[in-house]
């Protein structure tokens, strides 16, 4: 039997304090989210409040309602309008919004001649359709869910019949279980098919795998058509939507989300002026009323005047400490961001003058970490989801970082330069015979860039360019 013993062991452990964790979280937030985080903190901590600017305070002192009316000789009965009759009724103003995608499908379902049982099952099927317009779950699983949640016994055959009814709804292709079915439903909804559309139906029905793999020569041979006829059929397929749910707008005008830059960089007369975008980030301060409240509840030696105030004093003290830590963390965040962005500006000065990507120097996180004396992880948090506004547009900070590539002459160039050459080569290639990664590697090597085929493939994928086989066109 093992004896039980006690002993002391010394260990060095690195632990983050709550304040350090708060600082790290604030550092990661972009400008828009920081504004929301500050508002949340103000709501949760009554001691914390926004600091009014000197102009606002002066304006509030100078002008009052009483003074305004005192200087005006207008009779009192003119202060209000009397454009209403006693018979007028107050009518509420309703703000309406277009129906959602699923609500639209259920509304259309109401025009189908279905019984109550079928209506219930069809509505459940519509609820299982995702935002892209697809039914990605198999009917057997849906039948089990219906039996469990609604207590209605059904089977795959019954749901299949109701799904065909849903396929008749708008937008065309809704309720499809895969891309092939989606495209066929859209073509099938066209009343009179042209020869090109008939051929497109044939391609999607019988040769879908060959079509997705772009084996065009094989398809033309099997269909017995010439190049022009085949191209017209392919164009009919390309016009279709792979995500029918995206075709539905619901009468709403969805605005494209805009980017709020974290830094503003001005360049005038050969000089840079860098600043943080603090337009929507308020200055914070501790509410003095709570400090005075504590002073009134304690004696000169700092003890509560009575025991009943002890708990209240402790609560207010905790809130004051929390507010001070939060203000300190915000200031530290600002300092760290400015320090990092200034180092990036100094490193990429030539690029920021004109925005010419050929002048973008190779730069990694460690380069900026060495210049600022900060940790690489801190630089990563600063760079993540942050943007800078320049005279040539708003740029993500991540775009300024790139790997170094070496030429035959030993000169280091940015990977952006390689990507630009790849893009130019692929834009100018013969689409009947697209350039493979190996050919692109030979072109780059011929220009003096030492690069392997797998690196070419990596950069091509980063640019969102498919492989040569999928770039092929007729």
Keywords:
single chain; 474 residues; alpha+beta; four-stranded mixed beta sheet; two-stranded antiparallel sheet; 22 helices; RNA polymerase sigma-54 factor; transferase
Structure characterization notes:
The N and C termini lie far apart (81 Å). This protein has 22 helices and 8 strands. With 474 residues, it is an alpha+beta fold. It folds into 4 domains: 101-169; 176-247; 263-400, no CATH class; 404-471, Homeodomain-like (Arc Repressor Mutant, subunit A, Orthogonal Bundle), CATH 1.10.10.60. Strand 2 (263-268) and strand 3 form a beta hairpin. The strands form 3 sheets. A 4-stranded mixed β-sheet has the order 3-2-5-6, with helices on one face. A two-stranded antiparallel ribbon has the order 1-4. Strands 7-8 form a two-stranded antiparallel sheet. It is 50% helix and 7% strand. The chain has helices at residues 18-28, 31-44, 54-62, 65-70, 101-109, 116-127, 139-149, 156-166, 179-188, 195-206, 208-212, 216-223, 227-238, 288-297, 310-347, 349-354, 365-372, 376-383, 415-428, 437-446, 453-462, 468-471, and strands at residues 48-50, 263-268, 271-276, 284-286, 387-390, 393-396, 404-406, 412-414.
Describe the main β-sheet briefly.
4 strands, mixed
Instruction: State the total count of DSSP E strands.
Output: 8
The whole-angstrom Rg is 34 Å
Indicate the proportion of strand residues. Answer: 5-15%
From N to C, what is the helix and strand string? HHEHHHHHHHHHHHEEEHHHHHEEEEHHHH
Q: What best-fitting shape do the alpha-carbon axes yield? A: extended
Domain module count: 4
Q: Tell me which oligomeric state these chains represent.
A: single chain
Q: Order the strands across the largest sheet as they lie in space.
A: 3-2-5-6
Summing up helix and strand content along with how strands pair, one would put the structural category as alpha+beta
Helix content: 40-55%
Low-confidence stretches: 56-86, 92-96, 251-256
On the 0 to 100 scale, the average pLDDT is 79
């Amino acid at each position: 039997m093992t004896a039980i013993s006690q002993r002391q062991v010394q260990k060095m452990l690195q632990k983050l304090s709550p304040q350090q964790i708060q600082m790290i979280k604030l550092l990661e937030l972009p400008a828009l989210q920081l504004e929301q985080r500050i508002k949340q903190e103000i709501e949760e901590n009554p001691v914390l409040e926004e600091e009014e600017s000197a102009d606002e305070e002066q304006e509030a002192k100078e002008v009052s309602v009483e003074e305004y009316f005192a200087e005006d000789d207008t009779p009192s009965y003119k202060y209000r309008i009397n454009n209403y009759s006693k018979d007028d009724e107050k009518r509420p103003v309703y703000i309406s919004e277009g129906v959602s995608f699923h609500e639209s499908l259920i509304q259309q379902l109401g025009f189908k001649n279905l019984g109550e049982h079928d209506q219930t099952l069809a509505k459940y099927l519509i609820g299982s359709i995702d935002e892209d317009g697809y039914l990605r779950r198999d009917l057997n699983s849906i039948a089990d869910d219906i039996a469990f949640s609604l207590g209605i016994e059904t089977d795959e055959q019954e749901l299949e019949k109701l799904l065909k009814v849903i396929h008749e709804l708008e937008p065309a292709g809704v309720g499809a279980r895969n891309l092939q079915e989606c495209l066929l439903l859209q073509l099938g909804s066209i009343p009179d098919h042209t020869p090109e559309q008939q051929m497109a139906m044939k391609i999607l029905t019988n040769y879908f795998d060959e079509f997705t793999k772009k084996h065009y020569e094989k398809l033309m041979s099997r269909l017995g058509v010439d190049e022009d006829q085949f191209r017209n059929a392919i164009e009919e397929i390309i016009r279709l939507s792979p995500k029918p749910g995206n075709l539905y707008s619901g009468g709403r005008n969805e605005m494209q989300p805009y980017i709020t830059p974290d830094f503003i960089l001005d360049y005038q007369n050969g000089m840079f002026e860098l600043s943080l975008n603090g337009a929507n980030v308020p200055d914070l301060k501790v509410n003095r009323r709570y400090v005075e409240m504590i002073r009134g509840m304690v004696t000169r030696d700092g003890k509560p005047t009575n025991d009943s105030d002890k708990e209240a004093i402790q609560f207010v003290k905790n809130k004051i400490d929390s507010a001070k830590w939060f203000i300190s963390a915000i200031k530290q965040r600002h300092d760290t961001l400015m320090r990092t962005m200034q180092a990036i500006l100094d490193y990429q000065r030539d690029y920021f003058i004109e925005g010419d990507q050929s002048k973008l120097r190779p730069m990694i996180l460690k380069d900026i970490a060495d210049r600022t004396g900060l940790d690489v992880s801190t630089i990563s948090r600063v760079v993540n989801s942050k943007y800078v506004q320049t005279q040539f547009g708003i740029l993500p900070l991540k775009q300024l970082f790139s790997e170094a590539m070496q030429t035959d002459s030993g000169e280091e160039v940015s990977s952006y330069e390689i990507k630009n050459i790849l893009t130019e080569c692929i834009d100018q290639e013969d689409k009947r015979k697209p350039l493979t990664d190996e050919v692109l590697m030979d072109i780059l090597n011929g220009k003096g860039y030492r690069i392997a085929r797998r690196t070419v493939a990596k950069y091509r994928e980063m640019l969102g360019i498919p492989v040569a086989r999928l770039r092929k066109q007729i």
